[in-house]
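Narrative summary of target 7.
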Amino acid sequence: MTKPFDLLVAGEINPDLILSGDVEPAFGQVEKLVDSAALTIGSSSVIFACGAARLGLKVAFVGKCGDDVFGRFMLEEMARSGVNTGQVKVINGGTTGLSVILNRGTDRAILTCSGLIDSLTAEDVSDVLLTQARHLHVASYFLQTALQPGLPGLFERAHRHGLTTSLDTNYDPSEKWHGFDALLAVTNVFLPNEAEACSLARTEDVEQAARWLADRVETLAVKMGARGALGINAGRMVSTPSIPVKVVDTVGAGDSFDAGFIYGYLNGWPMEKTQRLAVICGALSTRSAGGTQAQATLAEAEALM
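Modeled conformation, tokenized:
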């Protein structure tokens, strides 16, 4: 049966305020001038959703935001990007989260005010909503603290309704990296970056980390920035180089990679083709400031495949 949505994203909602240039602050009431400032779509989950919609997937989003200027900005931009926000709960009196990104081109520091970022729970994702989608994606695991306890059960519910699942943990601010056995066991596609994969596997060798993680999930793709990606499916390792691109801003590149990978996965593409699309989507997203401004269309990405 055809379902209304290809993809359901359960995640956090917050804009990014990106400051670029000489952004290292100097305390002591020192005022510094930066090259540029931009208020853009933020949140790993939303950037992923927008990238998937731009590739042509039908995307619905479930999350929470405040009835404030940042929340209204995000809902308007998500709708403009083709993401269905009908399941987003707008909390009167609530505060939408905000990330301030100090961008130096290929490196950045992030200051986040969580607001409602950590308020979504597994119970907020109803069975009725699950039946309307083919796949469930979750990102920013460590920021979504209210979602963490129920996430293995949510993925199990998703499987019972015929959905596949994917996870991008993002970085663990506590650097403890524990409690994943039950969650990875019900995750079809796991999408860490190199640092996250090595931290979870307790090794500095990315190939060793990939093989350790691949024993726990159906499909694995490890993002390695300018060096491309390393993936494993059915015991076979696939290495994919990146493409040359003039980098303006790396914010959201990993989320755009995820969008490309899930597009290929849902369309039944082989691992090599899926990971190639993902690498291209991640690279092309760095051509402009913010996570969504330069996200690739399917035609743009396929032209480079």
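The chain has one domain: 5-25+33-303.
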